[in-house]
Hints:
It is built from nine helices and ten strands. By secondary structure, it is of the alpha/beta class. The protein has one domain: Rossmann fold (3-Layer(aba) Sandwich).
Amino acid sequence: xxxxxxxxxxxxxxxIGKKLIQLGYEVKMGSRTANNENAVEWAKLNxxxxxxxxxxxxxxxxxxIFNCTKGEITLRVFELxxxxxxxxxxxxxxxxxxxxxxxxxxxxxxxYANTNSLGEEIQKLIPDANVVKxxxxxxxxxxxxxxxxxxxxxxxxxxxxxxxxxxxxxxLKQFGWDDIIxxxxxxxxxxxxxxxxxxxxxxxxxxxxxxxxxxxx
Length: 217
């Protein structure tokens, strides 16, 4: 049975974790403490395949790791998890480098925009792992059920490892994503991270969070 580690106890982590359990995975949700209240409650709701621990515990546990943390703390979380614990693992990065310090809408943290990305910084921090950026351009319910967007949206993957991207694409297909474009190496995460401000403004203008992007070709 495949095992997944979830970094982050927010709505995204809970939603991803629940879906993975439905797909037959054992899932450990990690946080700063081993008994995080949100994580413990999530585990109670999701049965015997769900467990909790620290960031380090979840990383050691998972065959594949999902980063569902807020971009402002992501790199610190990876440090707490122990960079060596990610060795040779696929790390699916869903985070976005958003700065909410000036309210809504947030802006992209300057050091992670245009000429860099948070995905690249994660890969630098864990060079022996295989980071794949994906799913960061939709809300969590659409992440695990692409059709909830109302159509057949396009999802992107960015990463240096062909095998890690193939593993990620297999999971995406189980989440209902049929139209998937491989953009190339991890530097292409710069583009998808910069899509978030567009997504946020569409959401603010329409009040509809169940949206996706479609590439017509």
